[in-house]
Amino acid sequence: MFTPGQILKVAKDIKPQLFQLLPADRAEIIDRQLTQLITRQEAGENLAQEIIDLIDSQPELSTILRPLDTRGGSQPPAGDPAPTPASEDTPFKGIPPSPSPDNSKQK
What is the mean pLDDT of the segment spanning 6-16? Predict the structure, then answer.
């Protein structure tokens, strides 16, 4: 999950870009709402979820928070083993390795 500090940082970082990311009419509304939420969050209110909801309410912005989410939809479901990165010594398991000339004569 996110920390309130992470949410506040993302909100501040995207605020100057709203008019490039959204149509002008929506950007103006979201900018005003985000400004209010940032101000209240900085004053000590815990509005992280409201900030998340506001950002996620805009399709053009909804992917911005996903890189921070350690429990996001790209993670394996609970109980599934996490994928492990392959090393140079580990062949890709989906395709069997071709027999080398030296191995083809061995049985």
Answer: 93
